[in-house]
C-alpha cells in the first residue's frame, strides 16, 4: 500500500497560433534587407575614381554594360564586354541596343540611357568601340560609373 498515487504528468501542447505572424515578419524583413542581383558578373572591374559625380534619377530605362578582364584572368589587356549575362563583342552591342529600343515604350525611349561600368585598366580602344556601336544603335545618352574620389 502506497500512500502516494502516481499521477501521469503530461506536457502541455505548444501554442502555435502566433507562428504564422512570426514567419511572415521574418520573411518581410529578409525581403526588405536582401538585394537581388540581376546580372551574374562574368568580368571583373574596379571602377575609376572621379570628382564631378552625379546620381542617376531614373534607373528603370538604364542598361548596364560591364567591361573588364574575364573572371579568372589577370590580363587587363584582354578586356571583354558583358551585357546582362552574355559576353558580347562590340558589334553585337548595336544589335542588342536596337532590340532594347524596340522593347521600350515611346515615353521611356526618350529617357533611355546606358551606363558603362569599366575597369580602370581597360584600354580606351575597347570603350571607343562600344561607344561607336552605341552611336550606330542611336543610343546617345551614355554615363560612366565611377567611385567618389576622396580629396
Topology:
Blueprint (H helix, E strand, L loop, with lengths): L18 H15 L9 E2 L4 E2 L11 E9 L9 E4 L2 E3 L1 H14 L2 H4 L3 E6 L5 H13 L5 E3 L2 E2 L3
Parallel strand pairs: 2-8, 3-6, 6-7
Antiparallel strand pairs: 1-3, 3-4, 4-5
Helix pairs in contact: 2-4
Structural write-up:
It is a single chain. The chain has four helices and eight strands, in the order αβββββααβαββ. The relative contact order is 0.19.
Search tags:
single chain, 151 residues, alpha/beta, six-stranded mixed beta sheet
Strand tally:
8
- Shape from CA axes? elongated
Strand content: 15-25%
Helical stretch tally = 4
Integer-rounded radius of gyration: 27 Å
| End-to-end separation | 92 Å
Low-confidence stretches: none
Largest sheet: 6 strands, mixed
**How would you describe the oligomerization state of the chains in this entry?**
single chain
Structural class: alpha/beta
Helix content: 25-40%
Spell out the helices and strands N to C: HEEEEEHHEHEE
Mean pLDDT, to the nearest integer, reads 83
Amino acid at each position: 500500500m502506497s500512500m502516494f498515487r502516481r499521477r501521469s504528468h503530461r506536457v502541455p501542447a505548444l501554442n502555435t497560433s502566433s507562428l504564422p505572424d512570426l514567419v511572415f515578419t521574418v520573411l518581410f524583413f529578409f525581403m526588405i534587407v536582401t538585394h537581388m542581383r540581376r546580372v551574374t558578373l562574368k568580368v571583373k572591374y574596379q571602377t575609376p575614381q572621379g570628382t564631378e559625380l552625379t546620381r542617376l534619377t531614373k534607373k528603370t530605362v538604364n542598361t548596364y554594360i560591364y567591361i573588364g578582364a574575364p573572371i579568372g584572368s589577370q590580363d587587363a589587356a584582354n578586356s571583354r564586354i558583358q551585357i546582362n549575362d552574355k559576353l558580347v563583342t562590340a558589334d553585337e552591342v548595336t544589335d542588342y541596343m536596337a532590340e532594347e529600343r524596340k522593347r521600350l515604350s515611346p515615353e521611356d525611349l526618350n529617357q533611355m540611357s546606358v551606363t558603362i561600368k569599366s575597369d580602370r585598366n581597360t584600354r580606351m580602344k575597347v570603350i571607343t568601340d562600344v561607344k561607336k556601336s552605341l552611336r550606330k544603335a542611336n543610343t546617345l545618352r551614355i554615363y560612366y560609373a565611377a567611385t567618389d574620389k576622396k580629396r
